[in-house]
UniProtKB/TrEMBL annotation:
Protein name per its UniProtKB record: DUF3905 domain-containing protein
Superkingdom of this protein's organism: Bacteria
Phylogenetic classification of the source organism: Bacteria, Bacillati, Bacillota, Bacilli, Bacillales
Region (Disordered): 95-117
Organism, as annotated: Neobacillus citreus
Amino acid composition bias (Basic and acidic residues), ranges on this chain: 108-117
Amino acid sequence: MKKDNMKKIGQKVSIDETLPHQINAPSFEGTGIKMEAPFVNEHGVVIGDSLYASENSPLENWSEDTDPAIMSGDEWVHPTNDIGWNTTENRELLESKRKPQAYPFMHPTKDVSKGTD
């Protein structure tokens, strides 16, 4: 399912570009990646609200006749509120997007060390 077909809901689950309810969640601050609001997928399931249970979810209505493939694909994964961001590889990806923090040793527009060496 394409992202533009998903219905965004106005609920905000982040504070200062992080997810404080997840103790090991990384911060997206300074990465250029903006935290996104939860959305409702084509099955009527809210994705990204951190509640992990939805009345319409196949997990809540599982039977022998349920095909597990129904829960595959991008429509089941939230772009910023997903447990996958807690992995080492994805944390490194976020760190690589941050600008180096030069403060307090560098002036933002002047080379104050010029001529001192």
